[in-house]
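quick one, 116 residues, struct below
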Amino acid sequence: MYASHFAALSIAGIDVEEGAPAPDRVISGTPTFRTWNVEEAEGGIYAGIWESTPGKWRISYDEWEFCHILSGVSIITEDGGEARSVRAGDSFVIRPGFRGTWEVVETTRKEYVIRA
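---
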């Protein structure tokens, strides 16, 4: 049997995981998350689609993440750094050691690839 090594980043047929930031990390609003984890591979590699409703919370990254914003507007601010507004079409990497805040201004959906 042929096993393809190609995987489309599609959420069709993928169960959604619902969640929210830990209550002690929330700064404002009541953000809720929806995540469709499309791919999980050995070595702590994940790929999928994540969405959040408006709110602001503290973030802390121990992993490497590539993000591509599909819709919405968010502001990501690194502790001691400048606020960066991201919107549909923007791509970026967040590196291990990032500490700061993520503020969803308009419900934001992103594609992600994480390497833990």
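The chain is about 0% helix and 60% strand.
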